[in-house]
Amino acid sequence: MCSPSATLTVWAGSWLSGRSAPDDVLDALRAWCPVHTVAAGDPVTGGRTGLPWPSAEPLEAGTGIMMLLKVIRESMAEPGAQLRLVLPVPGDARGLPGGTEFATAAMDAEEGVIAGVPGGAGVALVPHRTGEESMQWTVFHTTVPNPIPDMPLGEAEYAMREAVREAADALTRVQTTGIGAGEDDPRELIESELADYSRHIYPDSAPLRARRILDSADHVAAILTVAQQTSPSSPTSAGAMQAHERLLRPLWNALRAARLAAVNAAAGPR
User: How far is CA 174 from CA 188, 227, 252, in A?
Assistant: First the structure.
């Protein structure tokens, strides 16, 4: 699983549809870190949810991980409510409600979750690390944007099969030019990255095709991450680094699109 937000989206979707227990969601989130807290992103959200906002220190009792599930359940009570992952990056703000504090926070984190009826009021959540063993989820009340259709799963699966090959080719080209060429064996580095991804599992209720896409996406991400690792002794130049970025950026973009399609399909309608 690529991020805490993806884990929350998939497992909360399974829980809300009655196919997983609350403890399953909690266990999946704790694979990222053992301690989770929840806070409001602003005083208005704090007043509506009873959550403290960042300036309220320390966080009050009842703002732990179970409160996270309570906030999501209440936001998903209306017919037509959806639970969706967002993975924004500079230049691609798809799925974000423009001009909101949530949009700013999600762009900074490059991830987030939106819950509610499209076109109506809902909540949005953004995680960030507060320590080696702790993570805080910040909750924002926001208008839920009408979702942009995700890539069809068949197209996403094909794109990830192609991306595995293209990422391997890109790694070879990067190594050939000396950018990112270090003493470590790239294959061992890729295996280490994949082992880290494999700690995060999917619910059995997730469609098999979505799980295949996510597994392939993790493989691509592992290769791209290794390709981006640059040894301090590697000969580099501004032009070479720009060429490096142009080589890898389309693959990262395809990866994000495929992950969005797979995670949102796995969260699915209730």
Answer: 17, 7, 15
pTM, two decimals, is 0.88
pLDDT of residue 171: 85
- pLDDT value of position 58: 47
Residues contacting 152, CB < 8 A, separation 6+: 261
Query: Both tokens of residue 49?
Result: 């949810």
Report the mean per-residue pLDDT for the chain.
Answer: 86
CA dihedral (37, 41, 46, 49) positive or negative:
negative
Q: What is the pLDDT of residues 151-177, one digit of tens each?
A: 999 999 999 999 999 988 888 887 665
Q: Which residues of 249-263 are buried (b: 16+ CB within 10 A; e: fewer)?
A: eebbebbbbbbbbbb
Can you say how many angstroms the Cα of residue 11 is from the centroid of all Cα atoms in its chain?
Answer: 13
pLDDT at 62 over 50: no
What residues contact residue 53 under an 8 Å CB cut-off, 6+ apart? 39, 40, 41, 42, 43, 45, 46
Radius of gyration for the alpha carbons in the chain, expressed in angstroms and rounded: 19
Question: Using an 8 Å Cβ cutoff, are 19 and 269 in contact?
Answer: no
Length of the chain: 270
Q: Which residues have CB under 8 Å from 43's CB, separation 6+?
A: 53
128 — phi, psi (to 5°)?
A: -150, 145
Separation CA 229–CA 131 (nearest Å): 24
